[in-house]
User: What shape does this take?
Amino acid sequence: MKPFLFSVLVTFSLFQQTFGQNKTKTEQQFFDLETNWMNAWKNKDEATVRKIIADDFALTSGLTAGELVYKETWIEHAMHGFDCQSFSIDTIKVRMYGNTAVLNIWWHQVATINGKDWSGSALLTDVWVKKNDEWQVVARHATPLPKK
Amino acid sequence: MLMTMICIVSCSASAQTPVSGSTAKELEEAESKMFVGILHHNADYFKDYVASDYITINADGIMADKEQTYADSSRFKILNDFSWKLSDKKIRAYGDVGIITGRARIYMKDDFAAEFLYTAIFVKDHQKWMFTGWQGTMSKDSPKPPSIPSK
Assistant: This one.
């Protein structure tokens, strides 16, 4: 079996095991938080994005040469470089540890960056922390999936 | 295995969530133990230090749980041939959850083979930092890594 096909099958298999049922209440809660955040990105709603992203937010992404992307840079790119037409959170898995939640997400977007197509699927690990009764995202790691 | 660990741990990962020196040291030790345990496919490490709800997302897009990770012997055969250098590390802690992000360069003998960015997540359970999550992504300028053979 080709390695790529194998990787796809393993990945689908894991998600089927985990997400073959309806979302739990917790998964729905974080699905909604993620949707709010990404809608704010899509709609270029900077005020909402600023509330959702913690000041110590850091993004790890293959888009960079290795440097982390911090809150202000993320917002700058989100508000001025990206143009998101649509997105979907296909699956979400949540692990709770007190006031910290670790999310694994199967993500898809149709988007451009500075006019260049930036559509595709990605696997995300997001970390949310409850601060003053509000959930804020402190970390995201994005790995793009190979295009089929 | 060549392990270049950055000795200077940021005493403050951010202005808002300073991580104490002792916690940062514990997390860095847990990370060091993790690299050795995982790369050497150490059964005791998996049993004692990998959380039961562990999930990995590897740089090639493979997602796996603890059992699937341990069973992926073809991947470990490849990993055994590599040496590693870690850099650009950032350590944060939120309650009992520790997050380490960094950059890893892998070498086949002396040849630079690939570079990836990683996020490692540890959760403290009974005073022990358990390896709970991993995600890796090839960096933008990385050479194409060796492929993992099919099973």
